[in-house]
What does this fold into?
Amino acid sequence: MKQHLQNLWKHRWLCRVLALAVVLAVLGGAAFFWLRRRAAVPVDMLQSGLVRTTRLQKTSLDDAVTVTGTVQSGITSTVTTDQKYAVKEILVQVGDTVQEGDVICTLDTSELEESIEKARENQTEQAQSAASQVSSASDSLNTATADAAAQESVLAQAQADLAALESGWQAAQSAVAPYEEVYNQAQADCEAKGAALTALQAQGTDAAAIQTARQEYDAAREQAESARQRLETARQQCSYDSLQQQYQAAQQAVEQARQQLDQLEEKVTQASQQLETSQDSASVLEETTDTTQQAQQMPGMMGGMMGGEGGATPPDMGSEAGGARPGGMEGGRGDMGGGMNG
It folds into this structure.
C-alpha cells in the first residue's frame, strides 16, 4: 500500500513538470513571433501612428447610363358606356391631354327624349284615370257606408216594433192557451169516441152497444164544438189573430232588414277594397311618374362621356358604345390615344 502511494505521488509530480514545460514553450514561441513581426514594420509607420494624408483637388465626375427603348403610357383606358346610343360629337383628338371629369364626347339621345316624352304623356293619362277611379271608389264607399247606416236604423226600428208587439202577443198566447188545451182534449176525446163507434159497427154487435157508443160520440162532438166556440171567443177578445199576423210580419221585417244590412255591409267591404286597390295603383303610377321625370334629366346627365386616367381612346362617330355606366367614365389625368406626358 505504501509503495502504491509513492508511485502515485511520483506520477503526479511528473505530470506537473511536463505541463510547466509546455506552458513555457508556448510563451516562448509567442514572444518570438511578436518580436519578429515588430522588426518587419517600417519605422516611419510606427512613428506616424498608421495615418496617411493627401491634398484635395477639383475634378469632373462622369457617371452616365445609355439605354435604347420605347416609352409608352403605363395606364390606358377605353371610354365606353352601356347606353346604346350613337356618338353625336367628339370633343377631343388623339394625343390630347384630359383631366378627370372632362367631357370627351356626347351621345345622341333624341330618340330617348321622345320615348320619355311619350311615356310621360301616357303616365299623365293613366294618372288622371287612376285619380278618377280613386274618386269613384271613394264615392261608392261613402254611398255604401251611408246606405248601411240607414239600413241599421231600419233594422233597429223593426226590432223595436217586434219587441213592442212581443209583449202583447205573449199575453194573447197566455190568455188563449187554456182554451186551446181544453179544445185539444175535447177534440181528441171526440176522435176516440168516433173510432170506437166505427169499430162496433164493423163488428156487427148488438144495436144497444152501438146506440150507446153513438150517444157517447155525439156528446163528445158537442163538447168539442163547445170548446172550439169558447176558444174562438177568447181569441176574439184578445185580438189573437191580429196580434199573430202583426208579430209574424214584424219578424219578417226584422229578418229582411238584417239580410239587407248584410248585403250593404258586403258592398261596403267591396267598395273599401276597390278604393284600396285604386289608391295602390295611383301610388305605383306616381312612383313611375317620378322615375320618368328623373329619366327626363338623364339625357343631359349622360349626354357627355368623361375621360379616364391614362390614355383614353375616343369612340367612333356614329357607332354604338357599350360597357360603361351612364354618365361616362371618370378617372385621373392622362393623354388621349395612349400618349405620355413628359
Remarks:
- Residues 75-109+303-342 form one domain.
- The helical segments are 2-40, 43-48, 110-203, 207-237, 240-302.
- The chain has a mean pLDDT of 75.
- The beta strands are 76-78, 87-90, 97-98, 103-107, 304-306, 311-313, 334-335.
